[in-house]
Amino acid sequence: MKRRVARELVVQCLYQMEMNEATSEEALEMLLEDAAEENDTERTITDEAELKEFVLGLVNGIWGSKKAVDDLLENYLKGWQMSRLSKVDRQILRLAAYEMLYRDDVPAKVAVNEAIELAKHFGTEDSGKFVNGVLGNMIRELDQLKS
């Protein structure tokens, strides 16, 4: 399973959940069905069960920790509020912050780099720079706290 693909699905699931008030399972099923229809073949995801488990684990973890993650991110937004961010940037920041705080299997720098790439892929022209700035400040402070 490629974690980049999984992270793309996580961002899309979070977006669907926020926009359509769907459950994580409903959002993921919609995305996988759309992907299968677009490919017009059998699903190209080789180990779909492993992918679903990984994606749902992240999505449910993020959604369950949303208030804590959002409150932390607010400290690094410099003149912004979570509610004013684009919905895509908000989901990407939530994913990266969650991975940095709650996942031992993801180095913080990897979480940041993945978030920047997701922002470039899904966001606006400035999303990558914005996400980098927010998470860069966060990672520096977290590193100082660990020292």
From TrEMBL:
> Does the UniProt entry include the keyword RNA-binding?
yes
The answer, when asked if Protease is one of the entry's keywords, is no
The UniProt entry's GO biological process terms, in alphabetical order, are:
DNA-templated transcription termination; transcription antitermination
Q: Superkingdom of this entry's organism?
A: Bacteria
Q: Which UniProt keywords apply?
A: RNA-binding, Transcription, Transcription antitermination, Transcription regulation
The UniProt record lists the NusB/RsmB/TIM44 domain at 5-140
Q: Which cellular component terms (GO) are annotated to the entry?
A: cytosol
Instruction: Give the GO molecular function terms.
Output: RNA binding
Concerning HAMAP family, the annotation shows: NusB
Q: What does this protein do?
A: Involved in transcription antitermination. Required for transcription of ribosomal RNA (rRNA) genes. Binds specifically to the boxA antiterminator sequence of the ribosomal RNA (rrn) operons.
* Name the record gives this protein: Transcription antitermination protein NusB
Q: Which source organism?
A: Paenibacillus rhizosphaerae
> Gene encoding this polypeptide?
nusB
